[in-house]
Design a protein that fits this description.
There is one protein chain. This protein has 245 residues and is mainly beta. The strands form seven sheets. Strands 10-11-12-13 form a four-stranded antiparallel β-sheet. The chain has a four-stranded antiparallel β-sheet with strand order 14-15-16-17, with no helix packed on it. A three-stranded antiparallel β-sheet has the order 5-6-7, with no helix packed on it. The N and C termini lie far apart (40 Å). The N terminus is likely disordered.
Amino acid sequence: YSWSNTDNNDIFDYTGASVIDFNTLPPTVYKDSDIRLDFKETYAAICDVNGNYLYYSNGQEIHGAEHRAIVNGDTINYGIRWEIFQFEDEIGNDQSSGFAGVQEIGLIPQPETDTILALYQNTNEFFEVGADFNYHLMQAKIVDNIVVTKDQIINDKIRIKGAITSCTHANGRDQWLLQFTSDTVYTFLVTPSGVALDYIQILPFELIHPFTRQSKFSPQGDYFSMHGVHSFNSDTGKGLMIAGR
């Protein structure tokens, strides 16, 4: 999003989204003031086979192709953190800024159905009790531009923030999803029946609880990497894990 400082009192004008259209050569860059959802760091989007937007989210709302919140999608993952991550727009309305955290939400099709699953992490407990807490991996289901269920807990033992990414199963239909504690990997499988815990693995090393982590599978799914920051302004404050079959 583009913002312009109008004076020295930290008042900002909302000016819409910056769009890069790769359907032209060279790509066309323009502003679209109809796109109103703001993204601080958390972001997920899903398109159809032609590359047209279906849904996108900043972790607080889910919007559709019309660039408005879909039915029941104006609030997901609600709690004290949701209230903190807001700003006042140019006409005085409160608006979600998007959560501060990378890969905290993913949009994944549920195979052989018309359902899109939004999988996201709830970290409200951090703002409520402080240091020692677990994240919740949650789920919302989207059908025909309607959030039919939301904030369903899938796992309440997550300790590694972010790192929500998926990989296509060898059957070409299902999706793998990994989530972590400091020494445990929870492997979930997304099938036509939904999200299910497939197995649990204990790691031979410890993952330090970071502020955030990013992860990625290789194109063939035979390698997985995860990078995280757990201490800023430190030469040893980052970690990288690489796993392969």
